[in-house]
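idk why but the lab printer keeps eating my pages so im just putting this in chat instead. protein + iron/sulfur cluster:
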Amino acid sequence: MENYIKTQKTLTDKKRFTLTPNLSSPFISPDTIIHIGEIAKKYGGVLKLGSNQKISIINLKEDCLKEISKELQLDLVPKSKSLLTNITLCTSNFCRMSKYPTIGIYMKLVKKFYKMELPAKTKIGISSCKNSCNSAYTKDIGIVVDKDGKFFITMGGRAGTNPKAGYTIASGLNENQTILILKTAITYYKTNANNKEKLRDFIDRIGLDSFIETCVR
Ligand code: SF4
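predcted complex ->
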C-alpha cells in the first residue's frame, strides 16, 4: 500500500496524501467517474486531472487511505518515478482529424510496457495525427501518425525548464513495426543507460546515429 500513497507537497504544514486509480485507458465510463467522485466526496478529497490523463484524489487525510483504496476496487498507480506509468493518447478514433485508429496500439503498449522499471522517468505519447494534441513530440517517446496513415517515432523529447522535441528515429511504419522498434529501443535503454539517465541524455551520450542503427533494423 505504501508504494501507492503519494505525500502531497502543500503550502501549509498539514499532511495530505494522494491516491491515483489506474484507469487503464483515457476513455472512461461515466459510472467509473461517478464512483471515484462519490468516494472523493465522502472522504473530503479533491479530484485533480493530470497531464498523465489520470484522475487523482488529492487532499486526503492519512487515516482514511486504507478505506478509500478498499472502496475504490481499482488498481492504483504506483508512486515510483522509475516505473513507466505515463502513457497518453490523443482523442484518437473520436477526432475527425485522426489518420489512424490508435486505440489499438495504445492498449498493446499499455499491456507490454506499463509498470516496466526504467533508468529514469519516461513518458510515452501517442497521437493520431501530426497536430499532436497531447504533445507527443516533447515526450521521451512519441508515436505519431503521418498524413499517409503511417507511424513515425520520436525519442528523447522533454518538457520542463529545458524543453526539446524528440529526434525522429524511424518513419513510414505500420503498427507491428512500430511496436518492434519500441521494444528494441526500450530494452536497449533499460539495459545500457546509467541510473537516472533520461532517454535524451542516453541518446546524446551514445550518439543518435548509433542509437538508430541499434534500434531500427
Ligand atoms: S492529434 Fe490529431 S487526431 Fe489527435 S486529437 Fe489532435 S487533431 Fe485529433
